[in-house]
């Protein structure tokens, strides 16, 4: 087995040896490694060795988003190992790729095209042998070229070709849902997990069990689905429409997720099955409309497809129905796992697992909440010589002049934070100032107090690339966002390998909002209130480190981090963060001086 790089970095081979010696049917590995260490290569190399030794048959490597597939693909290519790639069917499909269609409508239409035998890409799979498929994949460089090679060169469906390959290859790289979402998991059910090692990249996401396993649908979509059902099947599905109308009457609570209960609405297996039949029938009628050019039906959107997929998740054992509303007043329904041991059950199906991150979930979470029934072996790359740049290349200050603690916060609190943020921003001469809030409520309350300044942006769902383009044009900017969201988990604004995010202010401590869903997690600890508060601290620490990690991606990056809440004096939170605090102050002026000094040291020479 060849290591992915010609010259492994210090500690990589040693860590791989440790993984190989500890991994077995009774244990899982939790691998903590800072960004830039090369943990992907270590995990892949270890699995390759275990396959060579006949201990397991294959590895499944799961990543959160499709863009995170590409570094894994690059390492696999240099190892000369057989692999396949699986991500969203809609994006892999050569017919759907350029069409504006949701994944839900896509799946119903794809299903009908296959049943009717009118998808030429699918039909060609019959004439393909696995070796020809593997041979064609030699030239791929990323997930897009993976699909293109199969569809454009061989004329076959990339999605189903990849599924055909899964039992033949050594490593299958895929996105989270193929392992963590029950409905989608069925697609890869032919794999024998007992001879497979599961690798979970960015495993800190597992602490957000609802986000990893759950599903959501907006009230607007449900409303449209009811109208569709009445239009296509007038007067036929009265009981289905009655249940859906009951759902539409549900009012959200003031904060976070409010429990509704699927039984109280009347969602049963029969109702879910009826809605699935309705969605299939609608897809069938649309495909029929395009007789002779059936592929053109791929692009027709219908809301019943969303509803059918949502309900297929909701009716599973261990899932319940919740409602929430966002700041724009948009109401959403959620199917969330209330049996938090589902993650542990999934991990337990595999021969073993490697859970990797720069901020790994704790043993307490894995054993007490997720109920992982294995010996949890914690390995840290820092122990074998990796440098934690987050710690080494950051200047951390704690601002104690305010707190976002619920019972103490008021308009004055928001004013102090607005003043702090404005003063920091005034001193920044280039790059991005990332301001991270514990909730939308705090973000909007603070940002509405800003005076008129250039380059201030408040997150509102734009694609991440939007911000890179803006900073290129503006030179400096401030991005306001909420902890644990898309931006703090995924934004990378880089120029010549250097992160342009230079200053990060964490406003308050981003504990999860206390709502009906968090209350269910609290109850899963039994009487262990201390363990529940440990869990809240763990979630908050992971969110903070993820946000700070946006600024320090490699040894080239230096950043100023301002933890803005007096509760950061709590040693427990600080020890979890493993950051080195250089200054504690309640003076905004003092913080301003630090920003100025940081400018002089790191930004002015480069500007
Ligand atoms: S079977 Fe056809 S429609 Fe379905 S994903 Fe494959 S190419 Fe697309």
Describe the structure.
The chain is of the alpha/beta class and 607 residues long. 45% of the residues lie in helices and 17% in strands. It is built from 28 helices and 20 strands. The strands form four sheets. It has a seven-stranded parallel β-sheet with strand order 3-4-2-5-10-1-11, sandwiched between helices. A seven-stranded parallel β-sheet has the order 14-15-13-18-19-12-20, sandwiched between helices. It has a four-stranded antiparallel β-sheet with strand order 6-9-8-7. Helix 1 (12-22) crosses helix 2, helix 2 (39-52) packs across helix 3 and helix 5 packs across helix 17 (303-314). The protein is globular and about 70 Å long. The two termini are 46 Å apart. The protein binds iron/sulfur cluster.
SSE inventory with pairings:
Elements: H1 12-22, E1 27-32, H2 39-52, E2 58-63, H3 69-79, E3 83-86, H4 89-92, H5 103-115, H6 120-124, H7 130-136, H8 143-153, H9 158-165, E4 171-175, H10 177-180, H11 182-185, E5 196-200, H12 209-213, E6 215-218, H13 219-232, H14 238-248, E7 258-259, H15 262-265, H16 269-289, H17 303-314, E8 319-325, E9 331-337, H18 342-349, E10 352-357, H19 363-369, E11 375-380, H20 389-392, E12 394-399, H21 411-427, E13 431-437, H22 440-447, E14 456-458, H23 465-474, E15 476-482, H24 486-490, E16 494-495, E17 498-499, E18 501-507, H25 516-524, H26 529-549, E19 559-564, H27 571-577, E20 581-585, H28 588-603
Parallel strand pairs: 1-10, 1-11, 2-4, 2-5, 3-4, 5-10, 12-19, 12-20, 13-15, 13-18, 14-15, 18-19
Antiparallel strand pairs: 6-9, 7-8, 8-9, 16-17
The chain binds iron/sulfur cluster.
